[in-house]
């Protein structure tokens, strides 16, 4: 029998839940100051995301895109190196989406009765998606933002807090597209099969599963195993092969569910030899199931991935080709006129190729002037930030020390000198302006302008394009429904 008492296994599983909850709260903590500021008006110190710096996929894509500054921090390198030691433990213990999926899985009670076929394997689609994302990163980071689970989580939480938390019902229409859509897809997939996204689609998991093949953490099966298959049925990642002692370390997240499911306590986890030294697959025999496993797990070997066939190579090459062609194809869909972007944003074409729609800048904006785009700027701008002056004007320095540039994880928004801050140009609609159309002495926009760009001449408002910074204070304060003065992109 195994030397691991059952109550110890239970404590370890509870410990895992506590670790998952702790990391989830840690990643959510940067949103706390935003909630306090927006709900109670309290001035708080803004925080950058504690999650995205550890994103291996995002930082790898940035390197391919030409941004190498992330290597100095080394947070993503720490996660990648940890995969050699602890396999895909990040997916099972730290990833916030994985934590949420584990929380909601008990709701899908019918999955407990399903029996997993011994020959069931996970799709290799995730590796094709990984190649697609990495190759596309040479030209555009957009696809990384769309498919990276950590970015999806960040965007979802940002959408909830910046809209629902302040009861901004006028902007709920954007939520399904810029925040909830992909997250909802992940939850629906979980409804169908446990960890379906993690096993078959997630490019982040595919990336860290490559070094996980050499994991020092082992799953051991003793000779107490009776081949009942309970461990295989319980495993949410389908990481157990046809024989109970066979472990696919590229899929195993060390969730410990199989250890708890074993009726004979014949499964344990611990450090051992490198997976590369255990790559021996024992072919099953007819009488093997009637015999106990002799020796420890290291002696019986582990399940190893098969050799890469020519077909798989062609599939990966095709995925890379599609990724390389996807960014130029999206450029054809970009409209001629863009949106009013935050101060310091890259030129429109470069901005949409660099922005990952994480919505960190939207979360941090003190005046709530930034909003995620739906179709206002075309397909390539979905989820990207733009200035919506009717919601709030941009607070140029010194009231806002370029917070959007500070929190941008990919450099789509960069710090610039104060005298160069210019988001757009305000223009007056003479047909609706009270001072032009009706001769009313309305100077709200003139009084609101901080750059002395809006002036009154003979009772009518004019805008000096050279002085206008496009902050949107004039548009925000205009009493005309829909505003008679609007900020347009440069």
Give structural notes.
By secondary structure, the protein is mainly alpha-helical. It folds into three domains: 1-332, no CATH class; 341-421, Alpha-Beta Plaits, CATH 3.30.70; 423-490, Alpha-Beta Plaits, CATH 3.30.70.20. The protein is 42% helix and 7% strand. The chain has helices at residues 6-28, 32-40, 56-65, 70-73, 75-86, 89-94, 96-104, 125-136, 142-147, 149-164, 175-192, 196-200, 203-212, 230-234, 257-261, 297-300, 310-331, 348-354, 360-364, 403-407, 434-438, 444-448, 473-477, and strands at residues 217-221, 267-271, 370-372, 385-387, 424-428, 454-457, 460-463, 485-489. Strands 1-2 form a two-stranded antiparallel sheet. α5 packs across α13 and α10 crosses α11. The chain is elongated and about 95 Å long. Residues 165-169 and 276-306 have low confidence and may be disordered. Keywords: 4Fe-4S, Electron transport, Iron, Iron-sulfur, Membrane, Metal-binding, Transmembrane, Transmembrane helix, Transport. Residues 217-245, 345-375, 383-418, 459-490 form the 4Fe-4S ferredoxin-type domain. Pfam families: Fer4_2 (PF12797), Fer4_3 (PF12798), Fer4_5 (PF12801). GO terms for molecular function: 4 iron, 4 sulfur cluster binding; metal ion binding.
